[in-house]
Amino acid sequence: MRTTIGYTAESIGYVVGAQGLVSFASQTFFGTEWGWMHKVVDLPSTAYLGILAVGLALIVGGVKTRKTPQRQKVA
Predict the structure, then answer these.
(1) What phi and psi values does residue 23 have, to the nearest 5 degrees?
(2) What does the domain layout of the chain look like in residue ranges?
(3) What is 4-52 written as a DSSP string?
(4) How wide is the angle at C-alpha 29 spanned by C-alphas 24 and 32, nearest 5°?
(5) Which among 71, 53, 62 has a CA at the least distance from the CA of 8?
(6) Which of 1, 11, 21, 44 has a CA 20 to 30 Å removed from the CA of 58?
């Protein structure tokens, strides 16, 4: 079960982090809206860095959950 949760959190983290990065870069450097995040929320460009941080936290949490060793049952 840990493996499934780890992969799921990590996968969601990649999507959320990528959308945060793309939204920040598009607003800051090009003055346009890229990705789908701007269709969900209308935030200033610096707030998208927070979304990127949430994505990175999900990735790290997913990897840590996935790599936690399973307990051995003692007979």
Answers:
(1) -65, -40
(2) 2-67
(3) HHHHHHHHHHHHHHHHHHHHHHIIIIISS--SSHHHH----TTHHHHHH
(4) 75
(5) 62
(6) 44
**The model scores a pTM over 0.85:** no
Distance CA 6, CA 25 (A): 28
CA distance 1 to 27: 39
Return the ∠ at Cα 23 (arms to 18 and 15), rounded to 5°: 20
Report the distance separating Cα 5 and Cα 10, nearest Å. 8
Residues 13-24: tens digit of each pLDDT = 999 999 999 999
Q: Which residue has the tokens 């959320």?
A: 16
User: Over the stretch 3-48, which tens digit does the pLDDT of each residue have?
Assistant: 677 789 899 999 999 999 999 999 999 988 888 888 888 889 899 9
